Amino acid sequence: MSVTVKTAQQIFDQVLNKEELFILDVRNKDDFKDWKIEGKQIDHFNIPYFELIDGVEEIMDKIPSDKEIIVVCAKEGSSKMVAEMLSEQGLTASYLKGGMKSWSEYLYKTEVYSDDKMKVYQFVRVGKGCLSYMIVSGEEALIVDPSRFTDIYKKAAKDEGVNITHIVDSHLHADHISGGRILAEETGANYYLMKSEGAIFDFKALENYNKIDFEHVSLEVIAVKTPGHTPGSVSFFVNEKVLFSGDTIFVSGLGRPDLGGKVREWAKDLYDTVYNKVSLITDDVIVLPAHYADFEEEVNVAGYIGEILGEIRKQNEMMSNQSESDFVEHVAQSASSETPPNFEEIIAINRGVEEAEEEKQQELEIGPNRCAVHHTN
Amino acid sequence: MNATKILDAKGLACPMPIVKTKKMIEELQSGDILEIHATDKGAKNDLAAWVKSTGHELLESSEDNGLFKFWIKKG
């Protein structure tokens, strides 16, 4: 039997098609516990590769013969070795090209919205739960919350025949390294970020903009600009059709407040945003967040992560009719003690305070995002 | 530290550092010490986890400019 290699894209397509897969994950137990390839139709078995060096005979009763078998490890080498061993036992097995590192870096692009003024694409970083966006209008494009894989946005813009002229970050990310600064350098685009987030390089301070206009697009900056402390997250309301909610509102919950160490202050800002700003937005507006927690739970019938505001209001009692104190209490209590892996270093890099080589960036980013507070918890 | 044997696993990627470590340690006697040199960053976590699962003992490890050294006592 032969061993084949599969890319992250091929495996994610299978997840999207809800194909049954058996994933033999040969990383260390801690890594597996931390994060893995998720999917409702996926069965997992985890055993570190170093327990299989003498052969796979002992785990053969754990491996199904009626499902597709994919072996994964951190970088690729071990999964290839184990897949070859399975093949010698007469099974057909494949392994993930580039390992979980490539899974962490894969972005899936899908169209979210289109009318005669603009087109919106969503980029789903499936291994991390991060979302970024491209708004195309006329001959220009605006990118929201870009990941560090700037080639992907440049290619997407090229495919549309447009130039990237504006880049916005809804907040200073704690779970991944922003591509905003690099993408701005590479394209000459304007890069906007809240000044209060503490970045030390050149950018346009969102505090100075109520609106960003280009071609047939008008992007309204929705922020509670409390002087003197980190505002957490800004939202962008575009053409009164689409709300890029950053880390404030998710499809299944609200943003997590604890990273700044000022839980209640942050929760109060979130309350002001939700009750004084978002409350004025109509139910039919599409909410597009910066993160998700569970792809299959949160993906909608159209195939992207997002939901109309009316539906989010219906599903989430915290979105309306709460007193400020109840709201703050709820959000404060749902603050998790689990932080995104390496968040302090990632924040320092996103502020421009620290620099890191690509290999270091890969290492810092690997793992889950843990940015969404789960309302249901 | 007085190593019984030294394994040069520099430049090797996962899974080879551990595959070689395992082979070499099989040739040693209980109580012997194997010194391993590796450049693969993943080797650090993997060796620590592997040692735990096998009953050997990781006596010491060091890192200097991308070169990792480990001393493992055979159980």
Automatic annotation (TrEMBL), chain A:
InterPro entries found in the cross-reference section: Metallo-B-lactamas, Mito_Persulfide_Diox, POD-like_MBL-fold, Rhodanese-like_dom, Rhodanese-like_dom_sf, RibonucZ/Hydroxyglut_hydro
UniProt domain Rhodanese: residue ranges: 17-112
Catalyses which reaction(s): 3',5'-cyclic CMP + H2O = CMP + H(+); 3',5'-cyclic UMP + H2O = UMP + H(+)
SMART domains per UniProt: Lactamase_B, RHOD
CDD domains membership: POD-like_MBL-fold
GO aspect biological process, one term: hydrogen sulfide metabolic process
GO molecular function: hydrolase activity; sulfur dioxygenase activity
Entry keywords, A to Z: Hydrolase
Function: Counteracts the endogenous Pycsar antiviral defense system. Phosphodiesterase that enables metal-dependent hydrolysis of host cyclic nucleotide Pycsar defense signals such as cCMP and cUMP.
Descriptive protein name: MBL fold metallo-hydrolase
Source organism per UniProt: Chengkuizengella marina
From TrEMBL, chain B:
Pfam families: TusA (PF01206)
UPF0033 domain sequence ranges: 7-31
GO function term, MF aspect, one: transferase activity
SUPFAM superfamilies, A to Z: SirA-like
Keyword hit for Plastid: no
Keyword line: Transferase
Annotated family: Belongs to the sulfur carrier protein TusA family.
PANTHER family, A to Z: SULFUR CARRIER PROTEIN YEDF-RELATED (PTHR33279)
Protein name: Sulfurtransferase TusA family protein
Organism of this sequence: Chengkuizengella marina
